[in-house]
Amino acid sequence: MIDLDSFTSSGQPLAFFFDLDGTLAELQPRPEQVFIPAETLAALDLLARQHGVAVVSGRPLAEIDRFTAPLQLPAAGVHGAEWRDPQGNTQRVELDAGLLAQVGQRLESVLADHPDLLLERKSVAFALHYRQAPEKEALVRELAEGIAAEHPEFKLQPGKCVFELKPAGASKGEAISRFLELEPFAGCLPVFLGDDRTDEAGFAVVNARGGLSIKVGEGETVAKTRLPSVAAVALWLQQLSRDLARNYKQGD
């Protein structure tokens, strides 16, 4: 288990950033089947009462809020293309509606011949899931790479059994940097937990700021340490929340 006491020996406050799928919630065969366990939500709630906490995810803000309800945390959605600050103000990257329709129609026309592939629309991004057909990874990659090459407004983002086409300027690292300029995150050491290649930019920003980057699961990473699974993240959060509750009572 990761001990934050040794990490915070300087007394500098901490700010926490969490990916959602594969970190707070187990991956599922279809994205709409994902859920965050009630115990994890309760631990997040307690953590957010004493520290800055934000969710940084590839999912749109509306889906983040649905999964974290009744909490509504500061969040970056669609890899930072959607962004809500601690005061509730929301900003979004805008792409041409005609371009989005054109790309969406092209993806739908190709995937119509492959019902075991899934196209997920994310406001200004697209996710092509091949979890049900891993043998079609090369086909999906070629399709996504072709669209990214033709339309520089998009950047290709590989993930776990998915290729995403996201706005070129969207980055989890940039989203975390923006949060760290605002209260209650400003002046804090950042702690970021993520599981996928989409989280590596966030790990790099956290490392550069002297924070703690935590990779969930296996795979190459620039993160400083690891937790083995989503279940381990849940246990770590619950222990952290118990420690906070104990410290609060002692402070009384």
Task: Walk me through the structure.
This protein has 252 residues and is of the alpha/beta class. The chain has 8 helices and 12 strands. Strands 5-4-3-2-1-10-11-12 form an 8-stranded mixed sheet. α3 links the parallel β2 and β3 (75-77). α6 packs parallel to α7 (200-208). The protein is globular, with a radius of gyration of 18 Å.
In terms of topology, how is this protein built?
Elements: H1 4-7, E1 14-18, H2 38-50, E2 52-56, H3 61-68, E3 75-77, E4 82-84, E5 90-92, H4 97-111, E6 118-122, E7 125-129, H5 137-150, E8 154-159, E9 162-167, H6 172-179, E10 189-194, H7 200-208, E11 212-216, E12 225-227, H8 230-251
Parallel strand pairs: 1-2, 1-10, 2-3, 10-11, 11-12
Antiparallel strand pairs: 3-4, 4-5, 6-7, 7-9, 8-9
Helix pairs in contact: 2-8, 6-7
What would the keywords be for this entry?
alpha/beta
User: Average pLDDT, to the nearest integer?
Assistant: 93
Shape: globular
Strand order of the largest sheet: 5-4-3-2-1-10-11-12
- CA-CA gap between termini: 28 Å
Can you summarize the main beta sheet?
8 strands, mixed
% residues in beta strands:
15-25%
Radius of gyration: 18 Å
Q: Tell me the helix content.
A: 25-40%
Number of strands: 12
Order of helices and strands: HEHEHEEEHEEHEEHEHEEH
Number of helices: 8
Structural class: alpha/beta
Identify low-pLDDT runs: none
